[in-house]
Amino acid sequence: MTEKSAENLIPRPAKGETRPSLMGRPPVVVVMGHVDHGKTSLLDYIRIHGGQKAARPVAGREAGGITQHVGAYEIEHSLTKSKQTAKITFIDTPGHEAFSKIRERGAKVADIAVLVIAAEESIKPQTKEALSYIQKENLPFIVAISKIDLPQANPDKVKQDLAELEVFVEDWGGKIPCVQVSAKTGQGIDELLEMILLVAELEDLKASPDAEPEGVIIESSLDPNRGIIATAIILNGTLEQGKTIYTASAEAKIKSLENFLGQREKSLSFSSPAIITGWDNQPKVGEKFSARPLVAQAIEKETKSSVDSSPETAVADKTKNIFLILKADVTGSLEALETIIRQIFQETNFAPIIIEKSVGPITLTDIKTAETTKSIIVGFRSSPDQELGNYLKDRQIAIFQSQIIYELMEKLTEYLDELAKPTEAKISGKLKILEIFSEKDKKNRQVIGGQLFEGKAKKNQKFYLIKPDQPDQERTEAGKILSIKKNKQELDSAEAVVEIGLQTESLAEFAKGDILEFKA
Ligand code: GDP
């Protein structure tokens, strides 16, 4: 089992043959529907029995052990026609909550959804909720009419109710596959698995074992003995023990890697669930993981997209990258915000690098990501969670938020304008030169005296030189302070207002009345 589950069922290339860079990827399936409609029973049935013709029922409860809950499992199913076996990964994270989080964070994990509707109850509020999620995500889906063994089962009513929601199943003239199943008798389960593989084939899912590993965290918890544990679904590449992976809020030098049965593996590939330990922080459900830190990924993505769309705005041509985390109330506003941000930046010398974008309030994860990546947060109709007030008080994080897009644009433009004048914002103190005590020596050292009339000056600090007749001149670095003296006493720093002597190192020509501005 162990070695098999680490492998994919797609034939491996023979020795000497080069591995194709892309190959078929087993589908990742999510089961959704109203509470009590039989999702858990269906997932349990498939976990334990597979289809009745399953090549290899997956070890689980019937093997005597309690299957630990890790949020996902894999099965193998043999196709009726070809007799070939194929893998399917099922996500059995309960409820919509995890999926909402996954969607909020802009990730996508499932390739196919199974919408479970109980044959005796038909459509209920959560059925509609699941359907709207599926439609928003544009997920291919299969309707599973469950509990078909019950005497009061009325599958036709389900199909009719679906048609009223404009979901037309296959035998109602539509395209949505529909299977009748019972988790009690096993009826229709084979057909369902077959249908999943058929839909997967049409979707033409591809991945490469040689690609950099990437995927999505679906569960994460703190184990008293083992530390932080996360379950991820690998969507591309191969995860290996000892390698490092990154999410927005955490990184892991993979200490141990286990398959969904809790068996140790040296490596795991797509679309397997992987249980990962070795985290520095608890990764959040719904976060994507990848082999490179977020900033590196974001820069690469931005560089690519700007080169693709218009070479003249390539990141490389801009003087400075500004890292951004975008938040909005709904997907539509988020898209609008991104478009506007890109427009604003086009007028500037800065390149926008979007580290993260998601819907919902500004969360602690966003704040921490902003801290570690030195990003600014822009919230359109999205403000920080209330309990973050205190956390934010002690921190210097630039957050721009507004309910009105024009106001947000104004704030951002102002901020970028300020940034474009870096010298003004980043000066710690100013000194007026009153005396020139010595000529420059061979190493351009010189002793001058002056009044520190504003702020502070420190040893080794660099400065700009401002000539009084050119107050608006562009600031370029003119030299550095080698030492500071006050009344013959050597100081490490001085604070306004005070008269001090400075030994400087500079190529510039000083004159009485010139101003030195010390760079913060
Ligand atoms: P979930 O809330 O959607 O996960 O639903 P469960 O799987 O927990 O099932 C709810 C109830 O329906 C339980 O009492 C199950 O035993 C029962 N149930 C689930 N599937 C079937 C089925 O196919 N046939 C019958 N007769 N009962 C079922």
Strand order of the largest sheet: 3-4-2-5-6-7
Largest sheet: 6 strands, mixed
Q: DSSP strand (E) fraction?
A: 25-35%
Uncertain residue ranges: 1-20, 52-67, 308-316
Q: For the record, give the distance between the C-alpha atoms at the N and C termini, rounded to a whole number.
A: 61 Å
Number of strands: 28
Report the structural category: alpha+beta
- Shape annotation: elongated
Averaged pLDDT, please? 84
The distinct bound ligands, ions and cofactors come out as: guanosine-5'-diphosphate
Overall helicity? 10-25%
Radius of gyration, Cα only, in angstroms?
31 Å
Instruction: Give the helix tally.
Output: 12
